[in-house]
Amino acid sequence: MYNLREFLGRQSPDGGTALFSTGTTPTPQTAAWEWLLTQDTILASSAMGGETYRILQRYALQVFRYTILFDNGATYLTEWADGSISECDYPGVTCNSLSIVTELSLNGVDFVTTLPEELVLLSSLTSLSLHNNAIYGTLPTVYGGFSKLEDLYLYGNELTGTMPTEYATMPKMKRVDGSFNSLTGTIPTEYGLSTTLERFDYEFNALHGTIPNEMFSNSNLCISGNRLNGTIPTELGSIKMLKTIRLHNNELTGTIPTELENMSDLGDFFLHNNMLTGSIPTTFGTFTNTWGLDVSNNALTGTIPTELSLLTSSLASHLALENNMLNGTIPTVLGRLREVKDLRLANNQFVGTIPSQLGFLTKLSNKLTLSQNQLTGKIPSELGELTELKSLELEFNAGLTGTFPPHLGNMTALLDFIAYGNNITGSVPAAMCANLGNQLSRLEVDCDVSCSCCAEFCF
Questions:
Q1: DSSP 292-304
Q2: Which of 37, 136, 379, 393 is deepest in the core (most CB within 10 A)?
Q3: What is the pLDDT of residues 335-351, one digit of tens each?
Q4: What's the pTM value of the predicted model, to 2 decimals?
């Protein structure tokens, strides 16, 4: 039989340097080679001379096992240590009908390890999923040699370093997710030039610099929670296939492009927690498939476009405009958003009365926040129709007057009712106090309001 060590050395990404190490401490590569020689009964019995891919598969997987073993000082993947079973029967490994490894999935195992270069010897791998572990170190550039890889999921680890440009040239890559790591550097333009990449997820890392215009050719662009700066390019509006844009929690400046009328397939559009200025584009009303729209925590000005009411059937998650400098009245046509579950308008400069039409939003099941504005008039009794709502926040609107409508007592799903810092008098509906301790846990009003069960705030 040929010299196994020399064969593995020729195939190894490092040319066999680690495999031929002469140090006193074994490397994962030398340990894997010795395992093949002394414990792999399948290799010994079948003489895989004509199935070199099987040898390389078993070697690559054993290098990974020993890398984990040496890093942790504890036994992981014990089933992989059995030399009498096929690698296709290893937990986390999937093969095709020819016993070729096509998927490696070891998620949430919590092992501490680096990524060995030898995994690239799994040349037919279509999916590599190692998310939610404690993998550290840098991303091996040799993984750019995966010619059939479509999915790469490495989120929720402790990876550092930069994003290899080599990954952008994988000919079959469709989805890559390196979110929730500690990756640094800028986003290579090459990722935006890929003709196969459909989803690019690198949220909550430490990436900086501007977003290459080419990146908006991906149908799903998720790069929130970094330190990206600059402006959102106007070219964004010319990309019809965009489905997800998540740019929140960055340092983006400038205005939201108005050239957005072609983005009819957009599912969610998250720009919150940036430093954006200007007004909300009226073209938001063309997002006929958008289920979530969040531009909160910026420095936006102007009024709420009435065109948002056109999202009557799609906007099923949330509309968040809070913590800006928006003004004018709250459009009554927002009452047409019958599918929305979360409406947040707090901490702006809205004036006028609370539209009674908000009572039509009977699928509101999370929050309705109207606090810290300049709203006036009475609380409309129609809000009592929001029987699925969990939180109603009306505090710090000094112009709110009158009494609490008894109909508010019908809001039996409420967890929080906050209405202090207003000029409301009278008493809290008895049904609300009856619900306190059952469902309602936070009930806060002014001292001028009669309420034996409230946590009182005096101003």
A1: EEE--SS---SPP
A2: 379
A3: 999 999 999 999 999 99
A4: 0.90
